[in-house]
Amino acid sequence: MPKVLISDQMDPQAAQIFKDRGVEVDVITGKTPEELKAMIGQYDGLAIRSSTKVTKEILDAATNLKVIGRAGIGVDNVDIPYASSKGVVVMNTPFGNSITTAEHAIALMFALARQLPEANAQTQAGKWPKNDFMGVEVTGKTLGLIGAGNIGSIVASRALGLKMKVVAFDPFLTPERAVEMGVEKADLDTLLARADFITLHTPLTDQTRNILSRENLAKTKKGVRIINCARGGLIDEVALKDALDSGHVAGAALDVFAVEPAKDSPLFGTPNFISTPHLGASTSEAQVNVALQVAEQLSDYLMTGGVTNALNMPSLSAEEAPKLKPYMALAEKLGSLVGQLAADDLDNIAIEVEGAAAELNIKPITGAVLSGFMRRYSDTVNMVNAPYLARERGLDVREVRHDREGDYHTLVRVTVNTSQGARSVAGTLFGNSAARLVEMFGIGVEAELEGHMLYIVNEDTPGFIGRVGTALGEAGINIGTFNLGRRSAGGEAVLLLSVDDAIPQNVLDTICKLPGVKRAKALKF
Ligand SMILES: NC(=O)c1ccc[n+]([C@@H]2O[C@H](COP(=O)([O-])OP(=O)(O)OC[C@H]3O[C@@H](n4cnc5c(N)ncnc54)[C@H](O)[C@@H]3O)[C@@H](O)[C@H]2O)c1
Ligand SMILES: O=C(O)CC[C@@H](O)C(=O)O
Protein backbone atom coordinates (compact mmCIF):
# COMPACT_ATOMS: atom_id res chain seq x y z
CA MET A 1 0.00 0.00 0.00
CA PRO A 2 1.55 3.38 -0.96
CA LYS A 3 2.19 5.79 1.89
CA VAL A 4 1.76 9.56 1.82
CA LEU A 5 2.88 12.29 4.22
CA ILE A 6 0.82 15.49 4.62
CA SER A 7 3.44 17.87 6.03
CA ASP A 8 1.55 21.21 6.05
CA GLN A 9 -1.81 22.35 7.45
CA MET A 10 -4.47 21.00 5.13
CA ASP A 11 -8.20 20.43 5.30
CA PRO A 12 -8.78 17.06 7.05
CA GLN A 13 -10.83 15.84 4.08
CA ALA A 14 -7.51 15.28 2.24
CA ALA A 15 -6.45 12.57 4.71
CA GLN A 16 -9.87 10.95 4.41
CA ILE A 17 -9.62 10.81 0.61
CA PHE A 18 -6.23 9.09 0.82
CA LYS A 19 -7.68 6.49 3.22
CA ASP A 20 -10.77 5.95 1.04
CA ARG A 21 -8.56 5.43 -2.02
CA GLY A 22 -6.41 2.80 -0.27
CA VAL A 23 -3.40 5.05 0.42
CA GLU A 24 -1.86 5.01 3.90
CA VAL A 25 -1.52 8.57 5.21
CA ASP A 26 0.35 10.34 8.02
CA VAL A 27 -0.42 13.95 8.90
CA ILE A 28 2.70 15.38 10.57
CA THR A 29 3.04 19.15 10.31
CA GLY A 30 5.52 21.70 11.63
CA LYS A 31 8.64 19.55 11.33
CA THR A 32 12.09 21.09 10.90
CA PRO A 33 13.99 20.27 7.68
CA GLU A 34 16.19 17.84 9.65
CA GLU A 35 13.15 16.06 11.08
CA LEU A 36 11.52 15.88 7.65
CA LYS A 37 14.76 14.55 6.15
CA ALA A 38 14.87 11.79 8.76
CA MET A 39 11.33 10.59 8.02
CA ILE A 40 10.80 11.25 4.29
CA GLY A 41 12.46 8.01 3.14
CA GLN A 42 9.41 5.94 4.07
CA TYR A 43 6.92 7.86 1.88
CA ASP A 44 5.80 7.39 -1.73
CA GLY A 45 3.96 10.71 -1.82
CA LEU A 46 4.25 14.11 -0.13
CA ALA A 47 1.35 16.59 0.11
CA ILE A 48 2.38 20.16 0.98
CA ARG A 49 1.28 23.79 1.01
CA SER A 50 3.92 26.52 1.20
CA SER A 51 5.60 25.86 4.56
CA THR A 52 7.43 22.66 3.61
CA LYS A 53 10.52 23.42 1.55
CA VAL A 54 11.35 20.50 -0.71
CA THR A 55 15.06 21.09 -1.19
CA LYS A 56 17.82 18.96 -2.75
CA GLU A 57 18.67 17.60 0.72
CA ILE A 58 15.07 16.49 1.33
CA LEU A 59 14.87 14.94 -2.16
CA ASP A 60 18.15 13.08 -1.65
CA ALA A 61 16.71 11.56 1.52
CA ALA A 62 13.37 10.75 -0.18
CA THR A 63 14.48 7.41 -1.57
CA ASN A 64 10.93 6.09 -2.17
CA LEU A 65 9.28 9.34 -3.19
CA LYS A 66 7.33 9.22 -6.45
CA VAL A 67 5.12 12.28 -6.30
CA ILE A 68 4.84 15.67 -4.58
CA GLY A 69 1.48 17.44 -4.55
CA ARG A 70 1.20 21.16 -3.80
CA ALA A 71 -2.24 22.10 -2.45
CA GLY A 72 -2.09 25.47 -4.16
CA ILE A 73 -0.58 27.14 -7.20
CA GLY A 74 2.97 28.38 -6.56
CA VAL A 75 5.61 25.66 -6.43
CA ASP A 76 8.57 27.87 -5.64
CA ASN A 77 9.07 25.89 -2.42
CA VAL A 78 9.91 22.77 -4.48
CA ASP A 79 13.20 22.29 -6.34
CA ILE A 80 11.44 21.08 -9.51
CA PRO A 81 14.53 20.56 -11.70
CA TYR A 82 16.09 18.40 -8.99
CA ALA A 83 12.83 16.53 -8.36
CA SER A 84 12.63 15.89 -12.13
CA SER A 85 16.20 14.62 -12.22
CA LYS A 86 15.29 12.23 -9.39
CA GLY A 87 12.19 11.05 -11.28
CA VAL A 88 9.70 12.57 -8.84
CA VAL A 89 6.48 13.99 -10.32
CA VAL A 90 5.50 17.44 -9.03
CA MET A 91 1.83 18.43 -9.21
CA ASN A 92 -0.10 21.52 -8.15
CA THR A 93 -3.78 22.46 -8.05
CA PRO A 94 -3.81 25.40 -10.46
CA PHE A 95 -7.42 26.52 -10.09
CA GLY A 96 -8.60 25.62 -6.58
CA ASN A 97 -7.70 28.92 -4.91
CA SER A 98 -7.84 31.34 -7.87
CA ILE A 99 -11.20 32.95 -7.04
CA THR A 100 -10.26 33.30 -3.38
CA THR A 101 -6.95 34.97 -4.23
CA ALA A 102 -8.57 37.28 -6.77
CA GLU A 103 -11.10 38.28 -4.11
CA HIS A 104 -8.26 39.03 -1.70
CA ALA A 105 -6.68 41.35 -4.26
CA ILE A 106 -10.02 43.15 -4.69
CA ALA A 107 -10.43 43.32 -0.89
CA LEU A 108 -6.97 44.90 -0.60
CA MET A 109 -7.82 47.35 -3.38
CA PHE A 110 -10.85 48.56 -1.41
CA ALA A 111 -8.86 48.57 1.83
CA LEU A 112 -6.34 50.88 0.15
CA ALA A 113 -8.97 53.09 -1.49
CA ARG A 114 -10.67 53.74 1.86
CA GLN A 115 -7.73 53.18 4.27
CA LEU A 116 -9.86 50.69 6.15
CA PRO A 117 -7.24 49.10 8.46
CA GLU A 118 -6.04 52.45 9.88
CA ALA A 119 -9.56 53.85 10.09
CA ASN A 120 -10.62 50.75 11.99
CA ALA A 121 -7.63 50.91 14.36
CA GLN A 122 -8.16 54.59 15.17
CA THR A 123 -11.90 54.24 15.60
CA GLN A 124 -11.43 51.37 18.04
CA ALA A 125 -8.80 53.45 19.84
CA GLY A 126 -11.63 55.93 20.59
CA LYS A 127 -10.38 58.68 18.22
CA TRP A 128 -13.41 58.91 15.88
CA PRO A 129 -11.15 60.31 13.11
CA LYS A 130 -13.99 61.20 10.72
CA ASN A 131 -12.03 63.92 8.88
CA ASP A 132 -8.74 62.06 8.50
CA PHE A 133 -9.67 59.41 5.99
CA MET A 134 -10.65 60.85 2.67
CA GLY A 135 -10.80 57.92 0.26
CA VAL A 136 -11.10 57.50 -3.51
CA GLU A 137 -13.73 55.74 -5.61
CA VAL A 138 -12.67 52.84 -7.79
CA THR A 139 -15.45 53.43 -10.30
CA GLY A 140 -14.03 54.83 -13.54
CA LYS A 141 -10.44 54.31 -12.40
CA THR A 142 -7.86 52.33 -14.36
CA LEU A 143 -6.62 49.05 -12.96
CA GLY A 144 -3.22 47.95 -14.28
CA LEU A 145 -3.07 44.17 -14.32
CA ILE A 146 0.43 42.69 -14.48
CA GLY A 147 -0.14 39.01 -15.32
CA ALA A 148 -3.42 38.01 -16.94
CA GLY A 149 -3.57 34.28 -16.20
CA ASN A 150 -6.05 32.45 -13.99
CA ILE A 151 -6.12 34.88 -11.10
CA GLY A 152 -5.43 38.01 -13.15
CA SER A 153 -8.38 37.27 -15.42
CA ILE A 154 -10.73 36.79 -12.45
CA VAL A 155 -9.50 40.08 -10.95
CA ALA A 156 -10.14 41.74 -14.31
CA SER A 157 -13.70 40.44 -14.48
CA ARG A 158 -14.44 41.65 -10.93
CA ALA A 159 -12.84 45.05 -11.68
CA LEU A 160 -14.94 45.42 -14.85
CA GLY A 161 -17.99 44.65 -12.71
CA LEU A 162 -16.93 47.55 -10.49
CA LYS A 163 -16.91 49.77 -13.59
CA MET A 164 -13.14 50.11 -13.70
CA LYS A 165 -11.07 50.14 -16.91
CA VAL A 166 -8.52 47.35 -17.05
CA VAL A 167 -5.15 47.64 -18.81
CA ALA A 168 -3.18 44.40 -18.88
CA PHE A 169 0.50 43.65 -19.38
CA ASP A 170 1.28 40.01 -20.04
CA PRO A 171 3.63 38.95 -22.87
CA PHE A 172 1.61 35.76 -23.31
CA LEU A 173 -1.78 37.49 -23.55
CA THR A 174 -3.08 37.23 -27.11
CA PRO A 175 -5.08 40.14 -28.58
CA GLU A 176 -8.07 37.77 -28.97
CA ARG A 177 -7.94 36.77 -25.30
CA ALA A 178 -7.64 40.42 -24.28
CA VAL A 179 -10.82 41.19 -26.22
CA GLU A 180 -12.56 38.19 -24.67
CA MET A 181 -11.54 39.41 -21.20
CA GLY A 182 -12.65 42.95 -21.95
CA VAL A 183 -9.22 44.40 -21.14
CA GLU A 184 -6.81 46.59 -23.06
CA LYS A 185 -3.49 44.89 -23.80
CA ALA A 186 -0.59 47.26 -23.17
CA ASP A 187 3.15 47.32 -22.73
CA LEU A 188 4.50 47.71 -19.23
CA ASP A 189 5.45 51.39 -19.54
CA THR A 190 1.97 52.32 -20.78
CA LEU A 191 0.39 50.43 -17.90
CA LEU A 192 2.69 52.10 -15.37
CA ALA A 193 1.90 55.53 -16.75
CA ARG A 194 -1.88 55.05 -16.83
CA ALA A 195 -2.89 52.89 -13.88
CA ASP A 196 -4.55 54.31 -10.75
CA PHE A 197 -4.25 50.90 -9.14
CA ILE A 198 -1.72 48.21 -10.07
CA THR A 199 -2.22 44.58 -9.15
CA LEU A 200 0.37 41.82 -9.71
CA HIS A 201 -0.55 38.28 -10.74
CA THR A 202 2.56 36.66 -12.23
CA PRO A 203 4.79 33.91 -10.92
CA LEU A 204 8.24 34.93 -9.67
CA THR A 205 10.67 34.25 -12.52
CA ASP A 206 13.89 35.80 -13.78
CA GLN A 207 11.72 38.04 -16.01
CA THR A 208 9.28 39.12 -13.28
CA ARG A 209 11.68 39.52 -10.35
CA ASN A 210 11.58 43.21 -9.33
CA ILE A 211 9.16 43.98 -12.16
CA LEU A 212 8.20 46.93 -9.95
CA SER A 213 11.80 48.07 -9.53
CA ARG A 214 12.79 51.54 -8.30
CA GLU A 215 13.03 52.61 -11.94
CA ASN A 216 9.60 51.25 -12.83
CA LEU A 217 8.00 52.64 -9.67
CA ALA A 218 9.24 56.05 -10.80
CA LYS A 219 7.32 55.57 -14.06
CA THR A 220 4.00 55.09 -12.28
CA LYS A 221 1.34 57.78 -12.10
CA LYS A 222 1.59 59.94 -8.97
CA GLY A 223 -0.95 58.69 -6.43
CA VAL A 224 -0.97 55.11 -7.70
CA ARG A 225 -1.99 52.33 -5.29
CA ILE A 226 -0.26 48.95 -5.57
CA ILE A 227 -1.43 45.46 -4.62
CA ASN A 228 0.60 42.27 -4.61
CA CYS A 229 -1.12 38.96 -3.89
CA ALA A 230 1.18 36.95 -6.17
CA ARG A 231 4.75 36.50 -4.97
CA GLY A 232 7.24 38.44 -2.89
CA GLY A 233 10.21 39.53 -4.97
CA LEU A 234 8.05 41.10 -7.70
CA ILE A 235 8.47 44.51 -6.02
CA ASP A 236 11.61 46.23 -4.73
CA GLU A 237 10.38 46.63 -1.14
CA VAL A 238 12.91 49.33 -0.16
CA ALA A 239 12.06 51.38 -3.27
CA LEU A 240 8.36 50.94 -2.50
CA LYS A 241 8.88 52.27 1.03
CA ASP A 242 10.70 55.33 -0.38
CA ALA A 243 7.88 55.90 -2.89
CA LEU A 244 5.28 55.66 -0.09
CA ASP A 245 7.30 58.03 2.11
CA SER A 246 7.60 60.56 -0.71
CA GLY A 247 3.88 60.29 -1.44
CA HIS A 248 4.46 59.28 -5.07
CA VAL A 249 2.72 55.99 -4.28
CA ALA A 250 -0.48 56.73 -2.33
CA GLY A 251 -0.82 53.25 -0.87
CA ALA A 252 0.43 49.69 -1.11
CA ALA A 253 -1.00 46.40 0.07
CA LEU A 254 1.15 43.30 0.16
CA ASP A 255 0.05 39.77 0.94
CA VAL A 256 3.43 38.35 -0.05
CA PHE A 257 7.00 39.35 0.80
CA ALA A 258 10.47 38.74 -0.52
CA VAL A 259 11.29 36.91 2.73
CA GLU A 260 8.53 34.94 4.42
CA PRO A 261 7.49 34.75 7.15
CA ALA A 262 8.03 38.52 6.98
CA LYS A 263 8.89 39.55 10.52
CA ASP A 264 10.81 42.79 9.97
CA SER A 265 10.05 44.21 6.52
CA PRO A 266 11.31 47.77 5.79
CA LEU A 267 7.68 48.53 4.91
CA PHE A 268 6.27 47.82 8.35
CA GLY A 269 5.01 50.97 10.04
CA THR A 270 4.94 53.00 6.80
CA PRO A 271 1.78 55.15 6.49
CA ASN A 272 -0.65 53.90 3.83
CA PHE A 273 0.90 50.46 3.85
CA ILE A 274 -1.30 47.42 4.48
CA SER A 275 -0.10 43.86 4.91
CA THR A 276 -1.57 40.40 5.31
CA PRO A 277 0.43 37.26 6.11
CA HIS A 278 0.12 35.42 2.75
CA LEU A 279 -3.62 34.99 3.21
CA GLY A 280 -4.52 35.06 -0.50
CA ALA A 281 -5.61 31.42 -0.54
CA SER A 282 -7.01 31.33 2.97
CA THR A 283 -10.73 30.78 2.66
CA SER A 284 -12.51 27.66 3.76
CA GLU A 285 -13.75 27.14 0.18
CA ALA A 286 -10.30 27.36 -1.40
CA GLN A 287 -8.67 25.20 1.24
CA VAL A 288 -11.26 22.47 0.79
CA ASN A 289 -10.85 22.70 -3.01
CA VAL A 290 -7.06 22.40 -3.01
CA ALA A 291 -6.97 19.71 -0.30
CA LEU A 292 -9.50 17.54 -2.16
CA GLN A 293 -7.75 18.07 -5.48
CA VAL A 294 -4.28 17.29 -4.22
CA ALA A 295 -5.45 14.13 -2.44
CA GLU A 296 -7.32 12.96 -5.56
CA GLN A 297 -4.36 13.70 -7.83
CA LEU A 298 -1.78 11.97 -5.61
CA SER A 299 -4.05 8.96 -5.06
CA ASP A 300 -4.71 8.69 -8.81
CA TYR A 301 -1.00 8.71 -9.55
CA LEU A 302 -0.05 6.24 -6.85
CA MET A 303 -2.97 3.85 -7.46
CA THR A 304 -3.60 4.06 -11.23
CA GLY A 305 -0.72 5.99 -12.81
CA GLY A 306 -3.11 8.82 -13.80
CA VAL A 307 -1.30 12.16 -14.02
CA THR A 308 -3.13 15.48 -13.56
CA ASN A 309 -1.63 18.96 -13.26
CA ALA A 310 1.95 17.72 -13.23
CA LEU A 311 4.56 20.39 -13.85
CA ASN A 312 7.26 17.99 -15.00
CA MET A 313 5.37 15.26 -16.83
CA PRO A 314 2.64 15.08 -19.50
CA SER A 315 -0.90 14.65 -18.22
CA LEU A 316 -2.50 11.24 -18.35
CA SER A 317 -6.08 11.01 -17.17
CA ALA A 318 -7.22 8.11 -14.98
CA GLU A 319 -9.39 7.06 -18.01
CA GLU A 320 -6.46 7.24 -20.45
CA ALA A 321 -4.00 5.47 -18.13
CA PRO A 322 -5.29 1.88 -18.62
CA LYS A 323 -5.48 2.38 -22.43
CA LEU A 324 -1.98 3.82 -22.61
CA LYS A 325 -0.35 1.42 -20.17
CA PRO A 326 0.33 -1.39 -22.71
CA TYR A 327 1.60 1.20 -25.20
CA MET A 328 3.95 2.60 -22.61
CA ALA A 329 5.26 -0.91 -21.89
CA LEU A 330 5.80 -1.44 -25.64
CA ALA A 331 7.37 2.00 -26.08
CA GLU A 332 9.73 1.51 -23.16
CA LYS A 333 10.92 -1.81 -24.60
CA LEU A 334 11.48 -0.36 -28.06
CA GLY A 335 13.39 2.57 -26.52
CA SER A 336 15.44 0.16 -24.45
CA LEU A 337 16.19 -2.02 -27.51
CA VAL A 338 17.46 0.95 -29.49
CA GLY A 339 19.38 2.22 -26.48
CA GLN A 340 21.11 -1.14 -25.96
CA LEU A 341 21.98 -1.62 -29.62
CA ALA A 342 23.06 1.85 -30.73
CA ALA A 343 26.81 2.09 -30.46
CA ASP A 344 27.15 5.83 -31.05
CA ASP A 345 26.35 8.68 -28.72
CA LEU A 346 23.13 9.63 -30.46
CA ASP A 347 21.78 13.13 -30.74
CA ASN A 348 18.29 12.51 -32.09
CA ILE A 349 15.41 10.10 -31.76
CA ALA A 350 12.06 9.97 -33.55
CA ILE A 351 8.90 8.37 -32.20
CA GLU A 352 6.25 7.60 -34.82
CA VAL A 353 2.77 6.27 -34.17
CA GLU A 354 0.22 4.93 -36.63
CA GLY A 355 -3.12 3.14 -36.61
CA ALA A 356 -4.82 2.99 -33.20
CA ALA A 357 -1.70 4.44 -31.52
CA ALA A 358 -2.10 7.62 -33.58
CA GLU A 359 -5.43 8.28 -31.83
CA LEU A 360 -3.78 8.41 -28.42
CA ASN A 361 -1.97 11.02 -26.36
CA ILE A 362 1.57 10.63 -27.75
CA LYS A 363 3.38 12.36 -24.85
CA PRO A 364 3.31 9.41 -22.43
CA ILE A 365 4.43 7.12 -25.29
CA THR A 366 7.37 9.44 -25.98
CA GLY A 367 8.16 9.59 -22.26
CA ALA A 368 8.23 5.79 -22.12
CA VAL A 369 10.47 5.48 -25.22
CA LEU A 370 12.89 7.99 -23.69
CA SER A 371 12.76 6.23 -20.35
CA GLY A 372 13.78 2.93 -22.02
CA PHE A 373 16.34 4.62 -24.25
CA MET A 374 18.00 6.76 -21.55
CA ARG A 375 18.64 3.67 -19.45
CA ARG A 376 21.77 3.28 -21.55
CA TYR A 377 23.12 6.21 -19.54
CA SER A 378 21.63 5.64 -16.07
CA ASP A 379 19.56 2.96 -14.30
CA THR A 380 17.58 5.49 -12.29
CA VAL A 381 15.70 6.81 -15.31
CA ASN A 382 11.91 6.88 -15.39
CA MET A 383 9.15 8.66 -17.32
CA VAL A 384 9.66 11.84 -15.28
CA ASN A 385 13.38 12.36 -15.51
CA ALA A 386 13.95 10.80 -18.97
CA PRO A 387 12.83 13.86 -21.00
CA TYR A 388 14.81 16.07 -18.62
CA LEU A 389 17.96 13.95 -18.99
CA ALA A 390 17.44 13.75 -22.76
CA ARG A 391 17.31 17.55 -22.92
CA GLU A 392 20.41 17.80 -20.75
CA ARG A 393 22.26 15.56 -23.20
CA GLY A 394 21.06 17.64 -26.15
CA LEU A 395 18.99 14.78 -27.60
CA ASP A 396 16.60 16.07 -30.25
CA VAL A 397 13.23 14.31 -29.83
CA ARG A 398 10.74 14.24 -32.71
CA GLU A 399 7.17 12.96 -32.54
CA VAL A 400 5.29 11.97 -35.72
CA ARG A 401 1.66 10.92 -35.91
CA HIS A 402 0.74 9.12 -39.19
CA ASP A 403 -2.78 8.99 -40.59
CA ARG A 404 -1.90 6.15 -42.94
CA GLU A 405 -3.18 2.57 -42.56
CA GLY A 406 -0.26 0.14 -42.14
CA ASP A 407 0.04 -3.64 -41.95
CA TYR A 408 -0.70 -3.55 -38.23
CA HIS A 409 -3.80 -2.12 -36.52
CA THR A 410 -1.44 -0.18 -34.27
CA LEU A 411 2.28 0.55 -34.50
CA VAL A 412 4.96 2.42 -32.59
CA ARG A 413 8.27 3.01 -34.38
CA VAL A 414 11.48 4.36 -32.87
CA THR A 415 14.22 5.65 -35.16
CA VAL A 416 17.70 6.94 -34.39
CA ASN A 417 20.33 8.30 -36.75
CA THR A 418 23.66 6.62 -36.26
CA SER A 419 26.94 6.89 -38.13
CA GLN A 420 25.65 3.94 -40.22
CA GLY A 421 22.44 5.79 -41.11
CA ALA A 422 18.88 5.66 -39.76
CA ARG A 423 18.11 2.61 -37.59
CA SER A 424 14.56 1.85 -36.65
CA VAL A 425 12.60 -0.71 -34.66
CA ALA A 426 8.83 -1.08 -34.55
CA GLY A 427 6.34 -2.88 -32.37
CA THR A 428 2.64 -3.53 -32.05
CA LEU A 429 0.16 -4.79 -29.48
CA PHE A 430 -1.36 -8.21 -29.93
CA GLY A 431 -4.88 -8.40 -28.51
CA ASN A 432 -4.48 -4.72 -27.58
CA SER A 433 -2.21 -5.58 -24.68
CA ALA A 434 0.72 -7.88 -25.51
CA ALA A 435 3.76 -5.88 -26.66
CA ARG A 436 5.56 -7.44 -29.64
CA LEU A 437 8.54 -6.34 -31.67
CA VAL A 438 7.64 -6.73 -35.37
CA GLU A 439 10.49 -5.07 -37.20
CA MET A 440 14.13 -4.47 -36.58
CA PHE A 441 16.36 -2.39 -38.84
CA GLY A 442 14.14 -3.09 -41.85
CA ILE A 443 13.84 -6.85 -41.20
CA GLY A 444 10.50 -8.33 -40.14
CA VAL A 445 11.06 -10.25 -36.89
CA GLU A 446 8.41 -10.99 -34.32
CA ALA A 447 9.51 -11.26 -30.71
CA GLU A 448 8.46 -10.59 -27.16
CA LEU A 449 11.15 -8.40 -25.59
CA GLU A 450 11.42 -9.94 -22.14
CA GLY A 451 14.15 -10.90 -19.65
CA HIS A 452 17.58 -11.92 -20.94
CA MET A 453 17.94 -12.08 -24.71
CA LEU A 454 20.61 -12.70 -27.31
CA TYR A 455 20.64 -10.68 -30.51
CA ILE A 456 22.65 -11.91 -33.46
CA VAL A 457 23.04 -10.52 -36.98
CA ASN A 458 24.30 -13.26 -39.26
CA GLU A 459 24.51 -14.56 -42.80
CA ASP A 460 21.54 -16.75 -43.57
CA THR A 461 23.31 -20.11 -44.05
CA PRO A 462 22.22 -23.70 -43.41
CA GLY A 463 23.23 -25.11 -40.00
CA PHE A 464 23.66 -21.71 -38.39
CA ILE A 465 20.83 -22.06 -35.88
CA GLY A 466 22.16 -25.46 -34.81
CA ARG A 467 25.61 -23.99 -34.14
CA VAL A 468 24.15 -21.24 -31.92
CA GLY A 469 21.97 -23.78 -30.05
CA THR A 470 24.99 -26.00 -29.45
CA ALA A 471 27.16 -23.12 -28.17
CA LEU A 472 24.46 -22.07 -25.70
CA GLY A 473 23.69 -25.66 -24.71
CA GLU A 474 27.35 -26.36 -23.99
CA ALA A 475 27.40 -23.30 -21.72
CA GLY A 476 24.33 -24.66 -19.88
CA ILE A 477 22.10 -21.84 -21.11
CA ASN A 478 18.51 -22.78 -21.81
CA ILE A 479 16.74 -21.16 -24.76
CA GLY A 480 13.18 -19.91 -24.09
CA THR A 481 12.05 -18.57 -27.47
CA PHE A 482 13.64 -18.41 -30.89
CA ASN A 483 12.75 -15.55 -33.25
CA LEU A 484 14.09 -15.27 -36.77
CA GLY A 485 13.94 -12.77 -39.59
CA ARG A 486 15.92 -12.22 -42.75
CA ARG A 487 16.26 -9.58 -45.41
CA SER A 488 16.24 -12.21 -48.19
CA ALA A 489 17.06 -15.90 -48.54
CA GLY A 490 20.82 -16.24 -48.03
CA GLY A 491 21.07 -12.54 -47.09
CA GLU A 492 21.41 -10.77 -43.78
CA ALA A 493 19.39 -12.39 -40.99
CA VAL A 494 18.46 -11.47 -37.43
CA LEU A 495 18.13 -13.92 -34.57
CA LEU A 496 16.55 -12.92 -31.28
CA LEU A 497 16.61 -15.57 -28.58
CA SER A 498 15.22 -15.37 -25.10
CA VAL A 499 17.36 -17.26 -22.63
CA ASP A 500 16.76 -18.21 -19.01
CA ASP A 501 19.99 -16.73 -17.65
CA ALA A 502 22.32 -13.83 -18.38
CA ILE A 503 24.85 -14.73 -21.08
CA PRO A 504 28.41 -14.54 -19.73
CA GLN A 505 30.97 -12.60 -21.78
CA ASN A 506 33.00 -15.73 -22.65
CA VAL A 507 29.90 -17.40 -24.16
CA LEU A 508 29.15 -14.24 -26.12
CA ASP A 509 32.75 -14.21 -27.37
CA THR A 510 32.34 -17.83 -28.52
CA ILE A 511 29.13 -16.94 -30.37
CA CYS A 512 30.76 -13.92 -32.01
CA LYS A 513 33.41 -16.25 -33.43
CA LEU A 514 30.89 -18.72 -34.97
CA PRO A 515 31.03 -18.77 -38.79
CA GLY A 516 28.45 -16.44 -40.30
CA VAL A 517 28.04 -14.18 -37.21
CA LYS A 518 28.36 -10.50 -38.09
CA ARG A 519 27.67 -9.22 -34.58
CA ALA A 520 26.04 -10.45 -31.40
CA LYS A 521 24.92 -8.73 -28.22
CA ALA A 522 23.33 -9.78 -24.95
CA LEU A 523 20.23 -7.75 -24.13
CA LYS A 524 18.19 -7.31 -20.96
CA PHE A 525 14.58 -6.12 -20.70
N1 LIG B 1 -1.21 35.04 -2.24
C1 LIG B 1 -1.56 33.80 -2.37
O1 LIG B 1 -1.90 33.12 -1.40
C2 LIG B 1 -1.59 33.16 -3.72
C3 LIG B 1 -2.59 32.22 -4.00
C4 LIG B 1 -2.61 31.64 -5.27
C5 LIG B 1 -1.67 32.01 -6.22
N2 LIG B 1 -0.72 32.89 -5.89
C6 LIG B 1 0.28 33.31 -6.88
O2 LIG B 1 -0.36 34.11 -7.86
C7 LIG B 1 0.40 34.07 -9.06
C8 LIG B 1 -0.51 33.95 -10.27
O3 LIG B 1 -1.22 32.74 -10.22
P1 LIG B 1 -2.11 32.28 -11.47
O4 LIG B 1 -2.85 31.07 -11.05
O5 LIG B 1 -2.88 33.41 -12.00
O6 LIG B 1 -0.97 31.87 -12.48
P2 LIG B 1 -1.11 31.73 -14.07
O7 LIG B 1 0.05 30.92 -14.47
O8 LIG B 1 -2.46 31.32 -14.45
O9 LIG B 1 -0.89 33.22 -14.57
C9 LIG B 1 0.33 33.88 -14.50
C10 LIG B 1 0.38 34.84 -15.65
O10 LIG B 1 1.59 35.58 -15.57
C11 LIG B 1 2.00 35.83 -16.89
N3 LIG B 1 3.39 36.19 -16.96
C12 LIG B 1 4.47 35.37 -16.99
N4 LIG B 1 5.60 36.11 -17.13
C13 LIG B 1 5.20 37.40 -17.18
C14 LIG B 1 5.92 38.61 -17.31
N5 LIG B 1 7.24 38.63 -17.42
N6 LIG B 1 5.21 39.75 -17.31
C15 LIG B 1 3.87 39.74 -17.21
N7 LIG B 1 3.14 38.62 -17.10
C16 LIG B 1 3.80 37.46 -17.07
C17 LIG B 1 1.71 34.53 -17.60
O11 LIG B 1 1.65 34.70 -19.00
C18 LIG B 1 0.37 34.15 -17.01
O12 LIG B 1 -0.69 34.61 -17.80
C19 LIG B 1 1.37 32.92 -8.89
O13 LIG B 1 2.63 33.43 -8.54
C20 LIG B 1 0.84 32.17 -7.70
O14 LIG B 1 1.83 31.47 -7.02
C21 LIG B 1 -0.66 33.50 -4.68
O1 LIG C 1 -1.09 27.61 0.65
C1 LIG C 1 -1.21 28.82 0.83
O2 LIG C 1 -1.74 29.32 1.82
C2 LIG C 1 -0.69 29.80 -0.20
C3 LIG C 1 -0.95 29.35 -1.59
C4 LIG C 1 -0.48 30.28 -2.67
O3 LIG C 1 0.67 30.97 -2.39
C5 LIG C 1 -0.38 29.55 -3.96
O4 LIG C 1 0.54 29.82 -4.73
O5 LIG C 1 -1.28 28.73 -4.24
From TrEMBL:
Q: What reaction does this enzyme carry out catalytically?
A: (R)-2-hydroxyglutarate + NAD(+) = 2-oxoglutarate + NADH + H(+); (2R)-3-phosphoglycerate + NAD(+) = 3-phosphooxypyruvate + NADH + H(+)
This protein's UniProt keywords:
Amino-acid biosynthesis, NAD, Oxidoreductase, Serine biosynthesis
Q: GO MF terms on file?
A: NAD binding; phosphoglycerate dehydrogenase activity
Its pathway is: Amino-acid biosynthesis; L-serine biosynthesis; L-serine from 3-phospho-D-glycerate: step 1/3
Q: Pinpoint the ACT domain residues.
A: 453-525
SUPFAM superfamilies assigned = ACT-like (SSF55021), Formate/glycerate dehydrogenase catalytic domain-like (SSF52283), NAD(P)-binding Rossmann-fold domains (SSF51735), Serine metabolism enzymes domain (SSF143548)
**Its domain of life?**
Bacteria
CDD domains linked to this entry: ACT_3PGDH-xct, PGDH_4
Q: What is its EC number?
A: 1.1.1.95
BP GO terms, sorted = L-serine biosynthetic process
The record's InterPro entries line, in alphabetical order, gives: ACT-like_dom_sf, ACT_dom, ASB_dom_sf, D-isomer_2_OHA_DH_cat_dom, D-isomer_DH_CS, D-isomer_DH_NAD-bd, NAD(P)-bd_dom_sf, PGDH
Under NCBIfam families, the record lists: PGDH
The function of this protein is:
Catalyzes the reversible oxidation of 3-phospho-D-glycerate to 3-phosphonooxypyruvate, the first step of the phosphorylated L-serine biosynthesis pathway. Also catalyzes the reversible oxidation of 2-hydroxyglutarate to 2-oxoglutarate.
Q: Which family does it belong to?
A: Belongs to the D-isomer specific 2-hydroxyacid dehydrogenase family.
Q: What is this protein called?
A: D-3-phosphoglycerate dehydrogenase
